């Protein structure tokens, strides 16, 4: 392979690498978009405008509810620790000591 | 000029290849799956190795010796590879826990990296082994190093368990203090609020017991890196961790119940 063809090969590789990175970048952006609700192609999206309502939130009550949720989150962490990660236990191996009769 | 352009392309090519390799860093699950694959390869090599060994011991011929050496090399390499993948998995699991738990433990990373390097070198030396005695020496080296690797495996397991518990302890204290503050703010002349405050004082005693147990476990974490952890050590720590989890859950349930009596639906 002469230098010119090597240059062409490297240019193509570089171009493909850039394309691949763009693809990975776009894919990561799209994956975030997939979590949005899906509309069937024929369905007409309708905009439902909710009438603005004034809900008075009792700050003390909201704080209490937040605390209940915080305790639930800690409880979930406790559940995770309950599950022992046995994968970390070392595997068993055979060690040859001698090869004589 | 042409030479410079050529060099630039070569450098860019390697830069992008490196970037792609880094982007494909394995997750803990992938790393564990790879270890299992290697371990199965090692297990599959057990019977052929034993057969070759018994043939060699029975006939003592040149052919049976050559067959034995070949299979012993392959068997030992498969063992070293499985151990290597296990060590990488332990390292990866520790790295993941470090990220989540927000603590640093460089000691294990350094030790595990040393063992990974050793296993990689040993594998190459085994490939060139030409005698049974060479192989047996490598096997002894492997056994000694695998003892250390096992110890790090047990240590990392216990370390992650204790560090997770510390995180829970930290969050529990913060939330409990918030609850304390909430009860002070909730100064309504309400019999429920009054009862809740009394109840909270009673629960403080349960919390103090948990703190005491937690301190005992925390002191074990510091000792872990200075002594060689064994299966027994890991089992004792696991037992202690389990013992403290139930009272924590009971306490959390009591705090939630207390809150439910005073928080309007």
Care to describe what's here?
- The complex is a heterodimer of chains A (101) and B (265).
- Chain A has two helices and no strands.
- Chain A is mainly alpha-helical and 101 residues long.
- Chain A is flat, with a radius of gyration of 30 Å.
- The radius of gyration of chain B is 28 Å and the shape is elongated.
- The termini of chain B are far apart.
- In chain B, 30% of the residues are buried.
Reconstruct the topology from this structure.
The complex is a heterodimer of chains A (101) and B (265).
Chain A: H1 3-33, H2 59-82
Chain B: H1 2-23, H2 28-44, H3 46-59, H4 62-101, H5 106-127, H6 132-185, H7 191-224, H8 231-262
The tally of strands of chain A reads 0
Average pLDDT reading of chain A: 76
Shape of chain A: flat
Structural class of the secondary structure composition of chain B? mainly alpha
Uncertain runs of chain B are 18-23
Helix content of chain B: over 70%
Order of helices and strands of chain A: HH
Q: Helix segment count of chain B?
A: 8
Radius of gyration computed on alpha carbons of chain B: 28 Å
Report the sheet-strand fraction of chain A. under 5%
Structural class of chain A: mainly alpha
Query: How many separate structural domains of chain B?
Result: 2
Radius of gyration of chain A: 30 Å
Our measurement of the CA-to-CA distance between the termini of chain A, rounded to an integer number of angstroms, reads 58 Å
| Range of strand content of chain B | under 5%
Transmembrane segments (chain A): 6-26
Keywords (chain A): Membrane, Transmembrane, Transmembrane helix
Keywords (chain B): Signal
Signal peptide (chain B): 1-23
